[in-house]
Specification:
The protein has 267 residues and is of the alpha/beta class. Helix content is 49%, strand content 13%. It has helices at 16-28, 40-48, 50-58, 67-75, 86-100, 111-124, 144-156, 173-176, 178-181, 192-197, 205-209, 213-220, 222-230, 237-248; strands spanning 2-6, 9-12, 34-36, 61-62, 104-107, 130-134, 161-164, 185-188, 254-256. Helix 1 (16-28) packs across helix 5, helix 2 (40-48) packs across helix 3 (50-58) and helix 12 (213-220) packs antiparallel against helix 13.
Length: 267
Amino acid sequence: MSAVQYGPIRAHAVSLDEATWLIAERAKGGKGGFVLTPNVDHIAIARHEPAMATAYQRAFLSVVDGIPLVAISRLLGLAVRVKVSGSDLFEPLMARCAAEGVPVYFLGATAESCEQASRKLRASYPAIEIAGYDASDFDLERAPEAAEAALVRARDSGARLIVVCLPPRKQLMLARFEDAYRPAVGIGAGSTLAFYVGAVQRAPAWISRAGLEWLFRLSQEPRRLWRRYLVEDMAAVPVFARMTLDRLRGRPLQAPDPELQRPEPGA
C-alpha cells in the first residue's frame, strides 16, 4: 500500500472499504494509534506548523478528504485515486464496529449531536456499543492536561475507537497524547457527527464530486469560513506547484508503507 507525500503531509492510497477494514482491525487488535483525514486546509497549516506535519508522519493511516488532493495525484500519475472523507467513512466504520464488537466513543461534538448520533446508530446497528461521549472543548496549548484527561476518560470507558470531532489543530491531541488512550484508536473527524445527524448540511454529492464542497460550506458559514478558504488555504498552492516540478524532475513523491497491509478479499 503506497503513501503519497503532499509536501509536509503524507496520505495513503486506500479505498473506503480498505480504510474501514484497516481501522476496525487495528481497533479490535488493541494496537492503538490514530487516523487523520488530510485536505487542503491541513496542508496549509502544516507548511507553517511543524506539529501538524509531525502528526501526519506518525499517523498509522491518513485518508484523503478532498478532491483537490485526488486531482493532483491523478494529474501526476500518483497512487491516490479516490477521496475517502471522514463523513463518508463514518457510517461504514460504525457498521463494522458493530459487527466486530468494537466499542465507540465520541469526543468534542455537541452533547445534542452525540446523543442524536447514538440514537440513530443504535436504531440502524442494534449491536453497536457506544461507550460514552464527551462534549467538552479543549485549548490544547493553554490547558493540554484537560485534553489528555479527556482521552484517558475515553480509554477508561472501554472504548476501542475514539471519534474526535474537533478542528484540525485540536485533533493534534491524538498525536500529542497517543499513549494516554492506547489501546484505543483515535480518528480525527471534524464536523462528521454534525453532518451525520443533520445539524450541518452536507454538500450534494455532485458538488462534492466536482470539488466544490468548500464553496458550498462557505455559502453556509461565510463569516466563519471566508478567511480559511480564501486566504489561509492559498498556502497549499506552492505545495502543489512543487509536487508538479518534482514529478517532472523524476523525484519520488510516493513509497510503499510496509506497516499497512491490504485486507484479504472478502474480509
